[in-house]
Amino acid sequence: MKQICLVTLLAFLSLSTGCRKQEEITSYTVSKGASSSNTALPDMTAAPAKPTRMLAAIVPGSPQNWFFKMTGEPDQVKAEFDHFIEFMKSVTLSGDKPEWKLPENWTQEPGSSMRFATLKIKDTDPALEVSVIPLPAGTDLTADLLSNINRWRDQVGLDSISAETIKEAADKSPALDTELFTLKSGDKMISVVSLKGMMAGNPMSRAPFASGMMGGPGSPAAGPANPPAAAEIQYETPAGWQPGRSGGMRKAAFNITSGDETGEVTVIDLSKAASPLLPNINRWRGQVSLKDITEAELSQQSEQLKVGDLEATYVKLLGPEDAKPRIAILGAIIYRDELAWFVKFTGPVKLAEQEEARFKQFVQSIRFE
């Protein structure tokens, strides 16, 4: 392979003296039908993966959809299944806000950051709660549902589903072991998931994607009901990055280790129409305990990176100094044709600072064919 001189090496990889071989450019074709590995998401920053039950629902609205989510130990969540279904059947939208009737053992607390409200289940240990989050609705409800449901499935190590599975859910009745079904509340058809799998103890992966779902931060074997043709993505892997778990909505993934610190980089594609820029960046900010920013503040809190003939919006988000653990996100969002590509590092702040130059180099090396 072509040798890289010391000056170039220092400029791009911030490495020490001597000459090394250039990292090989990796190229592969992404198949939209590819399924993710049925294993737990490797946790780079918190506790190991553990058995988890997730109950979550999406109430469609305009201009935003509403996301309700409960995650916890399987037996604990199982005990609240009937209450969750009873609660979701009571949910209606008045104007652009939801109204509901709480089960007797639930209490309501004000929301914060992205949350509209937090619903607590009394006398549960560990504490069990339902988060209520509004996010902008996309132009295609099926794309919104597919992106978010597949993100949730990925969080507990399950394979992605297709748009056809969402249509079939309308004929299914509520049941604990039915992974996807619908409920009727007023004139709304509510999509509900009941998922059992393994979830890493990483708070970075818990939120939905913005607009039907970001992820999320999201996220997800995402994309519209009729997804674009398979895309080929090429990139240059920085020195020291090891292959991580990819497949499904994860088009690439890498694990990074330095001493006793570990981080993860993922590349995910979503529907462009369902992935507005600011809500996704604010979702990432919320994941590291930072306050939302406004559209006017976005240009001051981000920078543009050249990615071939495209541009990526890049953000460096460091959690508060008193946070334990103190987590950072390095994130870049690239819009191309009908897709939004999310490139994201999650890990300790110290490791993020160390890897920032390599992360930017990686983002700018991405090419689409």
Task: Describe the model.
With about 375 residues, the chain is of the alpha+beta class. It has helices spanning about 5-15, 75-80, 80-90, 140-155, 165-170, 275-285, 295-300, 350-365, and strands at about 5, 20, 25-30, 45-60, 65-70, 90-95, 95-100, 105-110, 115-120, 130-135, 180-185, 190-200, 230-235, 240-245, 250-260, 260-270, 305, 310-320, 325-335, 340-350, 365-369. The protein has one domain: Mog1/PsbP, alpha/beta/alpha sandwich (Protein Transport Mog1p, Chain A, 3-Layer(aba) Sandwich), CATH 3.40.1000.10. Helices cover about 20% and strands about 40% of the residues. The strands form 5 sheets. Strands 8-9-10-5-4-12-11 form a 7-stranded antiparallel β-sheet. It has a 7-stranded antiparallel β-sheet with strand order 14-15-16-20-19-18-17, sandwiched between helices. The chain has a 3-stranded antiparallel β-sheet with strand order 3-13-21. Strand 14 (about 240-245) and strand 15 (about 250-260) form a beta hairpin. The chain is globular, with a radius of gyration of 21 Å.
Globular, elongated, flat, extended or rod-shaped: what is the shape?
A: globular
Number of strands: 21
Beta fraction: 35-45%
For the biggest β-sheet, the strand order reads: 8-9-10-5-4-12-11
Short descriptors:
single chain, globular, Protein Transport Mog1p, Chain A, seven-stranded antiparallel beta sheet, 369 residues, 8 helices
List the helices and strands and how they pair.
Blueprint (H helix, E strand, L loop, with lengths): L2 E2 L1 H8 L6 E2 L3 E5 L17 E13 L4 E9 L1 H6 L1 H10 L1 E3 L2 E3 L6 E5 L6 E5 L6 E9 L4 H15 L7 H6 L11 E6 L2 E14 L30 E5 L5 E2 L6 E9 L2 E11 L5 H11 L7 H4 L4 E5 L2 E9 L8 E10 L2 E10 H17 L1 E2 L1
